[in-house]
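haha ok so turns out i had the wrong file open the whole time. this is the CORRECT one, sorry everyone. sequence first:
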Amino acid sequence: MTVMRGARNAWRWIVVGSTVVLGTRTMIGALIRGRMTLDLGIGRSIRALGPITIDVAAPRDIVFDVAAAPYGPRPPAELRRHVEVLQRSPGMVLAAHRTPVGHDEAVTVEAVVLERPSRIGFRLVRGPVPHVVEEFRFEDADGGGTELTYHGELGTDLWALGRAWGNRVAAVWEETVRRSLDQIRDAAERRARSKAPPNAGAATGG
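then structure:
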């Protein structure tokens, strides 16, 4: 009888342990994919994102328009696959951003403030961490180009455990931003070249 009772207790702990492990894995998966935000408000830690600065050989208004294109009234089809505007008001949108994560995708929902041509601000509404604020700054540079700078901050709860999670999220977040900046630069420079006047250096001599 004692042996049977011990076996039942062992199985009970195995079931409890398995449930905890599966629940933890499910929760982590939901956090990574932005389907759940853990906002406890205790042990909050804040870390910087960026700064990341790139030089773009295009005027500031063109660079801004390229960066803001996903949030416009008629975004290109390739951008609509990654960004969905959920709500729109003057100078601001609420948008869902989709980023591939392995065989799945992460979805973050952010409030986006558009201040043409100098700034685009972002505030996280739903995502893998409880707090993110970011901005793109557009400054005129020498030679008619643009200096585009990204910076922000990311916050997590639960002290050291949250900081470890925040560092993991921040690495992926910043890499995603770097890819976006490269895409903005390439598209803006292509648009600037297409708008440039024909080269007048081929004048004929008499």
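The longest strand covers residues 45-56.
again sry for the mixup
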